[in-house]
Design brief:
homodimer; 315 residues; Rossmann fold; six-stranded antiparallel sheet; 24% strand; 33% helix; ornithine cyclodeaminase, domain 1; 10 helices; alpha/beta; 2 domains
Chain lengths: 315, 315
């Protein structure tokens, strides 16, 4: 995780520094259910590395029918100097890690000094990943959790306590969960307000992970009015991020500040200890690129993987 | 090659039969030379198979600098029922084969009965592939070849004679090469007229492979005036195919006839023995899809390949 956090920080800096090309993604809608497979490519110019991630999602009968998760991923890396395929790796766990790492980067850059109380709105896999990542950069003293399913929240609490020895309180409402938080992470699939304006203490950082498509929403747009807003990619968040709703409502105005600009010291992040800060994460191909590159480097160092020569003449 | 020809015929029928989804391709321009990496996806609905081909091209210093070809390819197949990655295979040789097979399908469907004399305009790798494919469906008695480089044409002639025992005459001009031909295959990288109107005998089939991008051109648009025109994909040929120029000049009118429609008996192909027929091939993702599926089936039958379990938990 520390390697992935470093890679995602590099990715944000490269993106906002103009060192990245990410064409619009290519998607295919399958006949099965409402499933789809998307292809996202990213080019890190100075690193001379091109990545392609294939992500499937929405195969809701996979667990029953095939014993497979409802979404999977595959990442390819290509050498930008000669176009050669460098590696193929699983992209499922990688996506979970790099998305978790985005929360850690946000906490590092944007949380109030001394922040130690976390609230998790949403208690699925990505909530677990956020905690795995954030604990690398923040001393977590307590976690208050709330999710639509009380059983899901209980399972989350038990797992986090067992894995990290951090006490988790299952809140009876989202409002109660966030009441004392320094950092709130939202990882639901909601398409409506889950977190109301007025619930947060001054100085709270909200890491908004859930909204990454038009129509998806977790936060009350009013929450943006007096908050400092930082996004991962302005072009993408405008259309698909949590901020889409506050922009439409005229509560937030462009230009949007990118986390890469904050990391590069080109724009301020948090402006005071009392300011509420919202980080809007939609996920970018360059995060996959940088994370896959880090994993490949580690795999090579440790002798993990299998080598192929696709160009060898057939027998 | 017979398996690939069968697969490409199936691909054409599936495409024109409305059983295919091919989103616009996604491309990345590299800092190196004028190189690029493109990603083309195709979905064969009833076959429940999704393909993704990554193709690099334009790395002109690759042979010198890296001992690599200036373009390479990789194909992934995904199971459309669950989104799982089914296989990864080289896509370089596959592309050559499936493009060659398109010529064979055209000859099978559109050549004059008794056709036996071939002319090759362009003498590179794809000219060789065309002959490898066409000889599976036509008794080739003679080949007249012409290319910009006389040395290239001589090498081509020597290789074809050695590989297939078919005599090849190196013509001194394109006009001379095509004078007696029943089938003319054009595989150059030209962006201007190589084949003039008035040079062909009645009844000749022209397999136009070279033009697959806006601006590329091999044929005199006037050649289309009295010819029967058949394309691989109307939506694509309109923009990128040989027919783009004749359409712009108002010589050809829409709707364009697709080879898949001819194979499905929905539209006529050749209408008389004396008619000049032009087949405009731009290449489609579904050809990669169908060819890769055929290769995977053969590989499984023969126990070729290496198995992975990307989803196995890491140790």
């Amino acid at each position: 995780m520390p390697d992935v956090i470093a890679a995602v920080g590099d990715a944000y800096r490269a993106y906002s520094g103009g060192d990245v090309d990410q064409p619009p993604y290519m998607g295919i809608h399958l006949s099965t259910d409402a499933a789809e497979i998307d292809f996202k490519a990213g080019y890190h110019r100075s690193g001379e590395l091109v990545s392609l991630k294939a992500s499937s999602g929405g195969f809701r009968h996979n667990p029953d029918r095939f014993g497979l998760p409802n979404g999977m991923g595959t990442v390819l890396l290509f050498d930008g100097q000669n176009g050669a395929l460098t590696c193929v790796m699983d992209g499922s766990l990688l996506t979970g890690f790099r998305t978790g790492a985005s929360g850690a980067i946000a906490v590092q850059a944007l949380a109030r000094p001394g922040a130690c109380r976390l609230a998790a709105i949403g208690t699925g896999n990505q909530a677990r990943m956020q905690i795995r990542a954030i604990r690398e950069v923040m001393q977590i003293e307590s976690i208050h959790a709330w999710g639509r399913s009380p059983e899901g929240a209980q399972a989350f609490a038990a797992e986090i306590e067992a894995e990290f020895g951090i006490s988790v309180v299952c809140a009876t409402s989202a409002e109660q969960a966030v009441a004392e938080a320094d950092v709130v992470i939202t990882t639901t699939r909601a398409s409506g307000v889950v977190l109301q304006d007025g619930w947060l203490r001054p100085g709270t950082l909200v890491v908004a992970i859930g909204a990454d498509q038009p129509g998806k929403q977790e936060l009350d747009p009013e929450l943006f009015r007096d908050a400092r807003v930082v996004v991962d990619a302005a072009a993408q968040c405008r259309e698909k991020g949590e901020v889409q709703h506050a922009l439409k409502a005229g509560i937030v105005a462009e230009p949007l500040v990118e986390i890469g600009e904050v990391l590069l010291d080109r724009k301020p992040g948090r402006e005071s200890d009392d300011q509420i800060v919202i980080f809007d994460s939609t996920g970018m191909a360059i995060q996959d690129n940088a994370t896959a590159a880090a994993l490949l480097r580690l795999a090579r160092e440790r002798g993990i993987g299998t080598s192929f020569d696709f160009l060898a003449p057939a027998k």
